[in-house]
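Predict the 3D structure for this chain.
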Amino acid sequence: MSLSKYSLWEVILASFSGETWAYIAPAILETLYMTAVSSLVVLVFGFLLGVLLTALNPEGLLPKTGIYKVLGWVINTLRSLPQVVMIVLLIPVSRLLVGKSYGTNSCIIAISACCIPMYARLVESSLLEISKGKIEAAKSIGSNSFHIISRVVIPETAPSLIRGFTVEIISVLSMTALAGMFGAGGIGDIAVRFGYQRFQHEKLFACLYLLIFFVQLLQFLGNVISKHILKKRGLL
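Done. Predicted structure below.
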């Protein structure tokens, strides 16, 4: 249904029809799959990179100013590239690793590559929040760098890390919608191919409802988990 032929109210009503949602259902599963796998990849590699940046920071546990500056420059360079450009640049990499340059699996590579640098910076920012006094106290009892990071720094900054990861999952979700323009499938593909190019605005509205719902749900869950940890520590 096009807005040029039907009223806005009629299009909104059509966006809630069973026919519309039956058509979108497979795209929901594709979006959830891309979001879940990409978020897991971002969590692992982004978290490790963020911990490394924190340790190599000039004021960190293993200060290496030269390596830190090089890593920081690479991360900032990747973060400065628009998401669309990153997807296009990584098409050959996706073809090499997956065997094709389109589809959900190939776009997971591009989504992950776009979001890992940003999440690494979020992790670094969260880990640097811990007070120097707690680190010095851990050093005074003979803890090595690995134990300080794993048993002091990460547990103490867990609420902030969870909030950062919540933001990152939402970024991944938005990237899956953008990747739909490049053959990734999912909600973004339905919104662009049918909602925009074929003027089937009821499908566009339905995709919009889904994205809003997912973002609200993710933010709610992130806030609940973060507050639960703070309450257990008596900080709320």
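The mean pLDDT is 85.
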